[in-house]
Write a structure and sequence with these properties.
It is built from 5 helices and 3 strands; from the N terminus they run H-H-H-H-E-E-H-E. By secondary structure, the protein is an alpha+beta fold.
Length: 178
């Protein structure tokens, strides 16, 4: 007779570990729980200042060009120059530029022959002899042919050099209707 094979042993149940189930706290619990305190901010450690840069090694170019230890020095006072211009210096420049004044007056006559009055030309003479801050007064002459012409011309004038501070100068120009 045939022997029946023994019944197979049932597979053992796999082992299942019970994991603790996470539960969310209720809303009420969430509101009443305290938050974790954050750690105090890190304290800042001051680093020492960097050392001063080391001097560059001297090169041949430094010796030849003299750039190693150069520094700006104020110019020496101008020797032999007057402290300021005297009246004869100023009048000499005004006379030598009389042609500019006449040309500007003719330009005004051509543009508007009815304009008349005394125009004052104001300027500052630098110690170099160059002019700056040139303008005309009163304002009625500012945007006229004679006013604009005089400002442009006087900006090009050159006075003798002098050693002192800049000098203001005003001079009148009579504008006559034609």
């Amino acid at each position: 007779a045939e022997v029946a094979p023994p019944p197979a042993a049932p597979d053992p149940d796999p082992v299942v570990e019970d994991k603790p189930k996470r539960t969310r706290p209720s809303r009420k619990e969430r509101r009443t729980t305290t938050r974790r305190e954050s750690p105090p901010p890190p304290t800042r450690v001051e680093e020492p200042p960097p050392p001063p840069p080391a001097e560059k090694p001297k090169t041949v170019e430094d010796d030849l060009l003299g750039v190693a230890k150069t520094r700006r020095v104020a110019p020496e006072p101008k020797r032999g120059l007057p402290d300021k211009l005297d009246d004869s210096d100023v009048l000499g420049v005004l006379r030598s530029n009389r042609g500019d004044v006449q040309r500007c007056l003719k330009a005004q006559t051509a543009a508007d022959p009815t304009l008349e009055g005394t125009m004052t030309v104001e300027l500052v003479i630098r110690s170099s002899g160059r002019t700056k801050d040139v303008r005309v007064r009163p304002d009625k002459f500012r945007r006229t042919a004679v006013g604009e012409c005089m400002v442009g011309a006087v900006k090009k004038w050159t006075f003798p050099q002098f050693a002192g501070a800049s000098m203001p100068l005003d001079f009148p120009v009579r504008v006559r209707a034609q």
